[in-house]
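User: Reviewer 2 asked us to show a designed sequence for the structure in our supplementary figure. I'm pasting the structure tokens here. Could you produce the per-position amino acids so we can include them in the response letter?
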């Protein structure tokens, strides 16, 4: 990016103009995109911004506590919508439907909160690759193609719509956001739901949440991947103690990328791979097998759904 300061000035002006004196609700997930959006909007419209964190039940381990800590001094609305999301996802197997159901829940909650607070617009941290992949028919990013058709908002404000992830990080630096936010790995809007193949249940999400936490603990600081995570990809046979069990197969993925459009798997040392397998399979009783994904994007996507 040529000039992040100029981008900041222009976006602040644009948000101010688009908000047109009205209140604006936004989803603050704590990722770099939404945090940059919040910082820009705070400068543009101050207290007319209503940042909302929705605890979908599909977030990473410790996420809700972390958000409260980091953004405690913003007037952050924390909404516990776990039951609502799990109920909506019951019986949903198709990945596209899953994204749509989640996208729709998000929007409905924002509409509810907008009605309650008198907000007229919605601010979103959609970035360029989200739009490209949704428009290209690869999949509906939940905050683009997954949006329900009837939306009560006057305007959807998307100040980052033309930026790539690394440019958003530059803007985060220029805005002096904490390094923890600036360098945070991307995490998909639909959360852990796209890291469970097939139907999402509370039990599966708990397993994949633990596995994700172990993968992050083992890989983030040592290898600085662009993204790393675990996914539940199916059931298989294993032996635990003296018993043959039918347990989950956990896939571990760690990739380098510039913008998420293409990606290369990290070549991890054998000891790290063994440690991952041993920790995930021994710390999570329901897991029978751990595999490491060595497929680049393309042909595979980064996430499993
Ligand atoms: P894929 O799996 O398409 O992912 O190779 C590319 C990047 O986008 C993230 N991702 C999403 N982000 N909503 C989001 O906000 C989504 O529906 C979604 N799907 C994937 C993914 O984590 C990776 O960083």
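Assistant: Here is a per-position design you can include in the supplement:
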């Amino acid at each position: 990016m040529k000039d992040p300061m100029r981008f900041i000035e222009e976006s602040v002006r644009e948000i101010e103009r688009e908000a047109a004196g009205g209140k604006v609700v936004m989803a603050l997930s704590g990722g770099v995109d939404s945090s940059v959006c919040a910082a820009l909007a705070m400068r543009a419209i101050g207290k007319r911004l209503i940042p909302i964190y929705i605890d979908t039940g599909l977030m990473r381990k410790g996420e809700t506590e972390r958000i409260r800590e980091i953004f405690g001094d913003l007037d952050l609305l924390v909404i516990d919508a776990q039951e609502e999301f799990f109920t909506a996802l019951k019986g949903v197997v198709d990945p596209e439907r899953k994204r749509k159901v989640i996208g729709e829940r998000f929007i409905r909650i924002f509409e509810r909160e907008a009605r309650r607070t008198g907000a007229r617009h919605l601010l979103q941290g959609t970035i360029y690759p989200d739009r490209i992949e949704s428009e290209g028919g690869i999949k509906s990013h939940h905050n683009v193609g997954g949006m329900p058709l009837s939306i009560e908002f006057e305007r959807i404000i998307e100040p980052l719509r033309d930026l790539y992830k690394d440019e958003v990080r530059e803007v985060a630096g220029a805005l002096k956001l904490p390094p923890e936010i600036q360098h945070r790995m991307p995490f998909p809007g639909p959360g852990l739901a796209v890291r469970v193949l097939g139907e999402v249940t509370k039990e599966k999400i708990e397993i994949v949440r633990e596995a994700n936490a172990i993968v992050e603990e083992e890989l983030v600081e040592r290898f600085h991947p662009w993204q790393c995570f675990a996914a539940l990809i199916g059931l298989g046979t294993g032996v635990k103690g003296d018993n043959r069990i039918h347990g989950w197969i956990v896939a571990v993925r760690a990739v380098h990328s510039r913008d998420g459009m293409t990606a290369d798997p990290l070549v991890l040392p054998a000891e790290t791979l063994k440690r991952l397998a041993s920790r995930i399979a021994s710390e999570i009783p329901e897991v029978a097998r751990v595999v490491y994904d060595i497929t680049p994007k393309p042909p595979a996507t980064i996430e499993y759904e």
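For the response letter, you might also mention the following. Residues 133 and 139 are 6 Å apart (CA to CA). The chain has ten helices and nine strands.
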